[in-house]
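This section describes the prediction task in plain terms. A model, or a person checking by hand, is given the sequence of a single protein chain and must write out its three-dimensional structure as a string of tokens. No templates, partner chains or ligands are provided. The sample shown here is typical of the held-out split.
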Amino acid sequence: MNRLRIIRAAGFLACLSLMVSCASEKDYLVTIDTRFGKMYAVLYDETPGHKENFIDLASSGRYDSTEFHRIIDDFMIQGGDVFTKEGIPKEDWYTLPAEFNPSLIHEKGSIAAARQGDNLNPKQESSGCQFYIVEGRVYEEPELTTDMRKLQQAFTKYVQLDSNTELREAYGQLYSNQQFDSLNALMLSKKVVMEQFFNLNLGKDMRENQVRAYTSVGGTPHLDDTYTVFGKVIKGLDVMEAITQLEKGSNDKPVTPVYIKVNVELVAKKKISEDYGYQYPEE
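The expected answer:
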């Protein structure tokens, strides 16, 4: 009898192991359909609360007919305002605990949760429905690894010296012409000099994955570790880029609405990798 129980238990564990293995071989493929085309995305297992919440909203059709209601070129497109669409009172708009992960950053194509600012939301909790897709821009490494706010403050003091009149005039001309990339390059060219002059460290610590991503595909590094990244667009970034170019009215809202329909479907990870070029991290 004991032997029979052991055999049965072993068989049950084998079946359970097989079920878990089969489940892990599939993932949810997200499709965001717009009038500009479709974007395809995956959601991260490292952010289980956000992943489950997004899947629930999408599979129940609640995201359908919401809009990308806020677009900023070289930054992001934001949408998915289910609560406003459904007329839910603001006091009932639920939030999600933040799920920050140093490996999940705001590189181009990342999907992250919108939220209220720190003054109203000190725990940096996420909106229960709104999300954004990152466009951002590509950075040169010196800019990426420099505290640009401190650099600006030091530079403003530095150019007040009588010996730096020409430098001050060059800065003023670039500022007047709104040539901000050239202005940043000018300040960065004096970084070492100012560090020595003021005895300052103007550097900023960046992780290897941040430097690698932001100097190649680009993104929005200043949002890292303060907004939860929970997914990534793996095909259709041209759709996002087309949306960022739309004419905008007040509050960065497109003059012509961009409605969305969101679908989620369990698909074999192997097929996702083959069809969309996404490489899953080794488990």
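For orientation: The mean pLDDT is 92.
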